[in-house]
């Protein structure tokens, strides 16, 4: 009797790239034009990026839409050999695509995602589901679990939220996020902002800032009004950045973690 392999199929290149084949059918579009249509993509992790990206066999890319880049972005994407400008319907997108230097990835082309860096392909699909920002990491979990823990949130000494019915969101590589019912949050102490962000695991978030005079970052409170099905339990609930507020769980004050969001919050 044969057994399914349990080891990760990730391979390493001398350049420090990690990559593995994916069995997902992936398509990328610029406007209404399909630029990539691949059933043999590979996921690539660069050393300095926490999220993966896709690279595609050349024969599954519309190479007729690519031109050697007029002004290549040197020093990006782990020593990439060649950059391409993309031309669709008379519009040129500079440095929209590139090749990696690794021999393992020879014959593959990667693309920027517009929603992540502000240029590149506009829409991406895995099978028939549209995905956003960047590919979802198959080695990362996101679980939203209802709980009866007692969660209290303070900003500058003021209690902003107090709940015994949170939903705890566990996301690989990040601290636990505590999503609280709106009825348990003093929304009058917060002010809505215009910020909106997207997450490939959770959906599109809306934000609030602190109304008071305390020196705290803007946009430190968020909610997903219509999250992706995998985390439907957090629909409409309110979460706070652990990095910028004081959270007490079951009478234990949590330390403020240092995460990739800490720098963003400090400059917001």
Low-pLDDT parts are 1-7
Number of domains: 2
Order of helices and strands: EEEEEEEEEEHEEEEEEEEEEEEEH
Number of β-strand runs? 23
Strand content: 35-45%
Q: Give the averaged pLDDT, no decimals.
A: 91
Helix content: under 10%
CATH architecture of the largest domain: Beta Complex
| Rg value | 21 Å
Derived structural class: mainly beta
**CATH H-level homologous superfamily name of the largest domain:** Domain of unknown function (DUF427)
Main beta-sheet annotation? 8 strands, antiparallel
Continuous helix count: 2
What does this structure look like?
With about 270 residues, the protein is mainly beta. The protein has two domains: about 10-130, Metal Binding Protein, Guanine Nucleotide Exchange Factor, Chain A; about 140-265, Domain of unknown function (DUF427) (Metal Binding Protein, Guanine Nucleotide Exchange Factor, Chain A, Beta Complex), CATH 2.170.150.40. Helix content is about 5%, strand content about 40%. It contains two helices and 23 strands. The chain has an eight-stranded antiparallel sheet with strand order 1-2-5-6-10-9-8-7, with no helix packed on it. The model is unreliable at about 1-5 (pLDDT under 50).
Question: Could you give a short description of this structure?
Answer:
Helix content is 4%, strand content 40%. It has two helices and 23 strands. The chain starts with 10 loop residues before the first strand and ends with a helix.
Keywords:
268 residues, mainly beta, Metal Binding Protein, Guanine Nucleotide Exchange Factor, Chain A, 2 domains, eight-stranded antiparallel β-sheet, 2 helices, 4% helix
């Amino acid at each position: 009797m044969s057994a399914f392999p349990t080891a990760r199929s990730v391979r390493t290149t001398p350049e420090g790239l990690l990559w593995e084949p994916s069995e997902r059918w992936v398509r990328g579009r610029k406007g209404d034009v399909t630029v990539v249509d691949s059933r043999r993509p590979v996921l690539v992790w660069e050393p300095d990026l926490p999220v993966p990206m896709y690279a595609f066999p050349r024969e599954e890319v519309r190479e007729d839409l690519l031109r050697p880049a007029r002004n290549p972005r040197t020093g990006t994407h782990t020593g990439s050999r060649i950059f391409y400008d993309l031309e669709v319907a008379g519009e040129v997108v500079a440095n929209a695509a590139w090749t990696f230097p690794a021999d393992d990835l020879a014959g593959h082309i990667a693309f920027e995602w517009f929603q992540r860096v502000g240029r590149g392909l506009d829409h991406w699909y895995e099978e028939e589901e549209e995905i956003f920002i960047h590919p979802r990491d198959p080695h990362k979990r996101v679980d939203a679990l209802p709980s009866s823990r007692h969660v209290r949130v303070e900003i500058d000494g003021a209690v902003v939220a107090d709940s015994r019915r949170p939903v705890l969101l566990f996301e690989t590589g990040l601290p636990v996020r505590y999503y609280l019912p709106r009825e348990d949050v003093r929304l009058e102490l917060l002010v809505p902002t215009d910020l909106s962000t997207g997450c490939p695991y959770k959906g599109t978030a809306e934000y609030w800032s602190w109304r008071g005079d305390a020196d705290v970052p803007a946009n430190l409170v968020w909610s997903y009004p219509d999250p992706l099905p995998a985390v439907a339990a957090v629909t409409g609930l309110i979460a706070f950045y652990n990095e910028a507020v004081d959270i007490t769980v079951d009478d234990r004050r949590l330390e403020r973690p240092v995460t990739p969001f800490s720098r963003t919050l400090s400059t917001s």
